[in-house]
């Protein structure tokens, strides 16, 4: 998968050199190219922003510099374009899965009050463009949001996770974990500071362990994410689930 990221702070993306994503880049599963937006600003100060029409505080990123940058990065290509913004559609595991199936993604990192809206309007005429928010809070810029998305997408690519089953059992994973968060996990020793690992996990009984994990996922979802629990698909619940 090819990922192009345009930003005024390319140094934000240093973490993409380490861990799972770093290894995926070394192996060639991920081809990440980070571009400095200011390379397409022509004045002596390399200006990328201007005052907002209609007044108000803050600055807005200029469409001309974004247009030149995107044109140069994509050439005649047609990546799917992602514009991080708190006003976008929510970034979910389902969207991460969908984006992991794309061959080429282009991320446009906003700063200040965001990017002049004509940039999305322009590229939506020739690319698939999604404005995406990673949560109901406001960051200073799109870089951290892109790091979040790249990590969530990258770990779903074939061969990136040591064990592909991990992604299937994760919170929010499509299938049996849809709308569920994962329950608690434990490792050795069996007793730590008086806290015992639940006996069922030491039983070796795979059926009982699977049942316990499902029950704990449901319990934790009800406790921490009641809105997800309320949206659970009743047909996807079995007789045992309904007793919880
Ligand atoms: N004035 C904008 C608003 O209220 O919607 C917020 C602008 S924010 C200070 C600057 C940039 O940070 C945005 O253009 C976007 O790229 C990024 N950003 C901030 N919060 C985000 C979020 N929750 N999800 C995705 N991107 C975000």
Automatic annotation (TrEMBL):
Its main location: cytoplasm. GO terms for cellular component: cytosol. GO terms for biological process: tRNA N1-guanine methylation. S-adenosyl-L-methionine binds at residues 110, 134-139. Its EC number is 2.1.1.228. Residues 1-229 form the tRNA methyltransferase TRMD/TRM10-type domain. It catalyses: guanosine(37) in tRNA + S-adenosyl-L-methionine = N(1)-methylguanosine(37) in tRNA + S-adenosyl-L-homocysteine + H(+). It comes from the Bacteria. Pfam families: tRNA_m1G_MT. Keywords: Cytoplasm, Methyltransferase, S-adenosyl-L-methionine, Transferase, tRNA processing. It is found in: Cytoplasm. GO terms for molecular function: tRNA (guanine(37)-N1)-methyltransferase activity. The keyword Methyltransferase applies. Specifically methylates guanosine-37 in various tRNAs. Homodimer. Belongs to the RNA methyltransferase TrmD family. This is tRNA (guanine-N(1)-)-methyltransferase. It comes from Nonomuraea jiangxiensis.
